[in-house]
Specification:
The protein is of the alpha+beta class. The chain has three helices and three strands. The protein has a single domain (2-81), classed as Mth169, Chain: A, CATH 3.30.1280.
Length: 87
């Protein structure tokens, strides 16, 4: 199974990289872009018997390593067929 973990800064945390990207987009003529928030993306191929087990393991990994819970939040998507399709 494949779990996708999306990690982003909490809304209350200033995002200087996102601000810089937004300014660069405006310079390039993309004035309709009102704001940018940057984040991290992880794909975990997990040997789990159920999607719930895969989600639990991915959540533990996010809590312990992938995200800093003080300044970041995360969300997880589990695709039960993804790892099998790749092999």
């Amino acid at each position: 199974m494949r779990a996708r973990v999306f990690v982003t800064l909490k809304p209350s945390v200033f995002d200087p990289q996102g601000t810089t990207v937004a300014e660069a987009l405006h310079t390039l003529g993309y004035g309709a872009v009102k704001g940018v928030r940057q984040g991290k993306y992880f794909e975990l191929d997990i040997d789990a018997s159920t999607p719930e087990d895969a989600r639990r393991l991915a959540s533990e990994a996010a809590e312990k390593l992938l995200a800093n819970p003080v300044i970041e939040s995360y969300r997880i998507e589990v695709d039960a067929g993804a790892a099998e399709a790749v092999r």
